[in-house]
Amino acid sequence: MKLNLFFIIPSLAILASAATSDDTEGGWNNAHWGMTAQQIRETYPSSQMLSTPETYQFGGGRYICSLVLPNVPIADETFNVHFLMDRTSSLAAVQIQRDFPITAKGKSVFNTIRDMLTQKYGAAVSDDDASNSSFAPGSRTVKWQCTNMQIILRYLITPRSGECRISIAYQKPQSTENL
To answer: Which of 101, 93, 95 is nearest to 82 (CA)?
Structure first.
């Protein structure tokens, strides 16, 4: 039995370290909070500048997107990654999204992504019904909270068309210094 514990304890330490290594700086993939658009372009040479910047508002923040990384493979599908900058022109959030014309296909991809995020970040802190006057029953919002980021996975169904959107938002924690 002592021999088994000799191998098990170091293995558990390695797994615990790997589970938290992505959370030390915060961000998505190789993009970390505070990067400039130029640094993101150097990190992702296939990223593209938008001709007209887009404004995003979510999670209590307002962001500007002028840089997109198209066709990123996730769960056997391709998604567009939007790099969102704060008022200091520093990376503060990443929005990944894709629209699906068929709800059943979107639901399957959503379930796969939810499982992948749970495997990487642990159990979600919430998994809520997101249906309301704009989104049909079956819509979901799932959240994970890490030390240096919040992750929000959404599966939103359009009532009339039956189309759906999957979005994954990685967001830097909001500053509370002025509260």
So the answer is: 95
- The whole-number pLDDT of residue 44 equals 98
Would you say residue 61 lies in a domain? yes
Task: Enumerate the β-bridge partners of residue 98.
Answer: 166
Please give the tally of structural domains in the chain.
Answer: 1
177 inside domain: no
In the chain, the amino acid numbered 152 is I
Which domain does 101 fall in, by range? 28-171
Q: Is residue 69 part of a domain?
A: yes
CB 176 within 8 A of CB 60: no
Report the candidate in 100, 97, 76 with the shortest Cα–Cα distance to residue 164: 100
Q: What are phi and psi of 166, to 5 degrees?
A: -110, 130
Judge contact between 65 and 84, C-beta under 8 A.
yes
| Cβ(168)–Cβ(151) below 8 Å | yes
- Report pTM: 0.81
HSE at residue 141, side-chain half, CA atoms within 13 A, is: 11
Nearest Cα neighbor of 174 from 61, 91, 96 is 61
pLDDT tens figures, 18-73? 333 344 578 999 999 999 999 999 999 999 999 999 999 877 789 999 999 999 99
Q: Which helix (H) or strand (E) holds 6?
A: helix 2-21
Q: Which is it for the CA torsion 28, 55, 47, 163, positive or negative?
A: positive
